[in-house]
Amino acid sequence: MLDAYDLVILDLDGVVIVGEQALPAAAAAVATVRQEGTPVVFATNNASRSASAVAELLTKVGVPAEPSEVITSAMVAADALADSVPAGAAVLVLGSDALASEVRRVGLRPVSSAEDQPAAVIQGYDPSVGWERLAEASVAIRAGARWVVTNSDATLPSPRGPLPGNGSLVAALRTALEREPDMVVGKPQPALFAAAARQRSASAPLVVGDRLDTDIAGAYRAGMDSLLVLTGIASRADALAAPAEQRPHYLGDDLGALTRPGVQLARD
Ligand SMILES: [Mg+2]
Description:
Shape: globular
Number of helices: 9
Distance between the termini: 21 Å
Number of domains: 2
Structural class: alpha/beta
Radius of gyration: 18 Å
Largest sheet: 6 strands, parallel
Bound molecules: magnesium ion
CATH architecture of the largest domain: 3-Layer(aba) Sandwich
Number of strands: 15
CATH class of the largest domain: Alpha Beta
């Protein structure tokens, strides 16, 4: 399957790891992909961890990774923000320290109060966000700050089942403000995958994911081929019933599918 591609972009949860454990076939498959000379990028919608923290987690569970191989919605959102507000502008960070670091990396100034007159609000998943910070963001947005959201996943997986994700906190502000965010960056928007391909100068990337409505839909919008693995959310039946814009090119039981001849799905 790898012969046709010059980059493999891997979703994390349900593809390489589940919670804080590696999926059984993941380590061997990633090692084989690298041995064959194809680079990999790990692409995640979760904006709460830095690239270094993600690489550390992957390495700890037996899938060695470098920070430069990780791309997060926080990184791409900060880059997009830098293109739309003046250099050095104040940005209210409604999210984790990792998100604030990304804001700093692109030459913007993280703040936590609407009184600092931020040019933008950037919102990403952080389990410590509560009413006070949501209220502060709503004041800033009403005063004209641009509202950029790292991702809109309503839930995130956990060993206790789905828990409220960034999309659920975005929904609280959408309700309060009676408006939509100015920009949503994560999958199924194509920005994350496009940034990964650009970073590696790849012309034929393959996206691997476990969700049709984010990973596969995002690949379709980015104009990339995709492999759906059945170790996460979507089932075989889901794949077969998917609308055209969520239909993967290949289907595999697990990440080991990357190292075998592909089972290509009919596209029409
Ligand atoms: Mg996933």
